[in-house]
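Below is a filled-in request sheet from our internal design queue. Each sheet records the structural input a requester submitted and the sequence that came back. We keep these sheets so that new team members can see what a complete request looks like end to end.

REQUESTER: design group, bay 2
PRIORITY: normal
MODE: inverse folding
CHAIN LENGTH: 118
BACKBONE (tokenized):
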């Protein structure tokens, strides 16, 4: 087990990032901190996919490349996911600005109280 963690420490870091992001999403009542937690969770997922695509001793997939070679598909998927993540963050922050203008708070409990009174 120790050898696995010593050679594959990036998996531990990826799962740690996912855990911290999940904790921030669930545990924080502030909407901005939830968006930050979502971004930390996404970073953990990105790290996991990129590091799991690594092949020891492999080369880029060129026409004359010897076997084994590294598949570019995970890297392309992560580039697309980064663009989607940035767009999602921008939309979430825009909605949070509108929520703050409407309710005057970023805490979930206060927003629920104001919404229940209306």
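RETURNED SEQUENCE:
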């Amino acid at each position: 087990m120790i050898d696995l963690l010593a050679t594959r420490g990036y998996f531990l870091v990826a799962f740690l990032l996912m855990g911290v992001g999940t904790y921030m999403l669930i545990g924080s009542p502030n909407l901005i901190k939830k968006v930050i937690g979502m971004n930390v969770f996404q970073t953990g997922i990105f790290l996991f996919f990129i590091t799991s695509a690594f092949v020891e001793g492999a080369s880029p997939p060129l026409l004359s490349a010897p076997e084994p070679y590294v598949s570019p598909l995970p890297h392309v998927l992560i580039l697309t996911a980064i663009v989607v993540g940035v767009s999602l963050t921008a939309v979430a922050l825009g909605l949070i600005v509108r929520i703050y203008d409407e309710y005057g708070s970023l805490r979930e409990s206060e927003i629920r109280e104001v919404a229940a009174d209306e």
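SHEET NOTES:
- The chain has five helices and no strands.
- The domain at 2-55+69-117 is CATH 1.10.287.3510 (Helix Hairpins).
FILED BY: M.R.
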